Structure formats: structure tokens, C-alpha cells
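Recall the central idea of this unit: under ordinary conditions, the amino acid sequence of a chain determines the structure it adopts. In this exercise we apply that idea directly, starting from the sequence alone.
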Amino acid sequence: MPHHPLHPLRVPALALAAVLTLSGCGADVAAPSGERSPAADRHYPVTVENCGERRTFTQAPERVVTNDVGITEIMFALGLEDRMAGYVMPGSKGSAQDVPWKDAYERTPWLSKKRINAELVLDARADLVFAGWNYGFDESTGFTPAKLRKLGVDSYLLTESCRNGGSSRARGVMAPLDALYTDLLNLGRVFDVEDRAEKLVATFREQVADAMATAPRGADRPRVFLYDDGRDKPFTSGAYAGPHDIITRAGGDHVMKDLKDSWTTVGWETVVERDPEVIVINDYGDTSAEEKRKFLLSHPPLARVSAIKNKRFVVLEYVELVESPRNPGAIVRLARELR
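Accordingly, the structure predicted from this sequence is:
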């Protein structure tokens, strides 16, 4: 995603009771500081594949810094807040009462509302940074895994953000839900909480399957376009960002499914040509969802688009649409709206 300020986290609870239960139970994640249990010694070293690179960990990282809300909540869903030195997140996280994993947010230091940087990471005495390309890591700012490695700090890349090889800017190497499940299972191994990770993935798979069972099918599938932002050209989702699987599993036909990228820009003429029947608005940034809706309704090139003529919009929050533990809940909610 671009480096816009995050909208306050005002996301409603999204059928996450089972996930919250899993997040609060299970074996202890960490041994007392400075100690490693015999079981942990038997578990390590572990090797996982992250964005095409095989990574070996001789022990669980103890001071993780995360960047962005979805990435932070992946750690919280695995019950790993005790392994975190803190998180970086622009904007306000809103009322803790409205946020799943509210206890984890309250217990974990909010290090900065600005962009993550090397100085912040070193000040936090981090041993690992969990971020992604355009989710904190960016060659233009000089904050990259390679720079961290020179500083003695490890990194783990969000799988949604993996470079796909076709272009230095194009991202995505697998279906969005597979990216979420991959990161949960990888981190489950890295932090020796495999049982918790496997239970989370099983719960999410069941949640998605239940939503798909009642979702529109065949000719009843409405054409759906994801609108993030942009006036001259719309910023939207390709095949490798969260909205693709959210739309598809919810019973929609994602009109930009042929774009082999995650988040990217297209032309309005492409939107008009593909004539979406529903527009999903990403609610975040300085422009409110209602302002985005009013713009779409008033933008002359879109006047003949079906979704505009019928004023058919669905609003989802940023944290539901980027890779995060809230993706399955977003599928449930969107499926309900598309039926």
C-alpha cells in the first residue's frame, strides 16, 4: 500500500470469537527472559521460506518490531505480544474496546505514529523487524532488510508484499489467503507456537468455507471493483492483494483479477469497460469513505457504470483488506452484502 496515514481502527467485530479464544489460550509462548526450555532447544533450528529465501532461526526472536496494523495483528493473533518490543502505526488505533486483541494492544508499546526507520529499530533493541515492501521497507527511504542485516537486525517480509520477479515494483507471489496462511504457519514455526498457528488457519479456513457456501455463484456473481483512492487514476487491488480473495470468496467477480500485482493503479477507462456492479471502498486515509463515495457518484466518466447508476457500494476498513487476521471476517461480511 502507499504511505498514506492509516485511518483510525473503527472496525466492527467480524465473527472473530473463535479466533480471539485461540489467541488467548494455548501453551506459554515464551520462557522467562534469558532462559530456554529443553523443549525449545529440541525445536530449533527451524528453517522457513520467506519470499523465496530460506531463513534459518536458531531461537525465537525476543524483541520484534512490527510495522502497520495487519502485520501487528498477525503477531497478536498468534499470542506473540510478549515477543514484541513494539509496533509502528500511523494514525490512531481508536478505542481499545472496538479492537480484537485489545489486551495485546494495551500491553505492547506503540513506538511511533510516523514511518519506521533504522534509528527507531535500534532504540527498541529489536532483533527482528516484521514489515513488507511498501509496508515499511522501501529502497527510496533506505530502510530495507539489507540495511537491517548490516546493523545486526533480522527481518521477516509480509508474504503479500513479496516481489514477484516481473518488475522491481510488482508484488505478490501467491493467492492472498494463502499468503496469510503461509505467514501464520511460518511464524508459528519460528516462535514455536505451531499448534496455535495451525488452529488459527483451520478456523479461518472453516470460516471462509461457511461464507462461500451461501455466497452468490455462477451468473449471480456480481462484478466487483475495489476503490482505494485516487482522482486522476484509481488505486486498486490486483490478484495478489487481500481484496482479490475477499471479493472472490464472498461471491463476487473481481474485475481486476487479471492484474498480476498486489496494489496498483489503473485507468478509469478500464473500470468503465469492465462495468462493475458493486464498488468496495477502502475506508482509510485523509479522505473519508463518504467523501470517496460522493466523488465516485459525481465523476463524469463513471456515470454509466452499473454500480454508480444503482448506488451500490460496500465499505470495508483498511485492516480488513490488507493481509491480516481480519481477512476471513471481511469475506463473511462482504458475502452477506452481495447476497
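Residues 29 and 99 are 22 Å apart (CA to CA).
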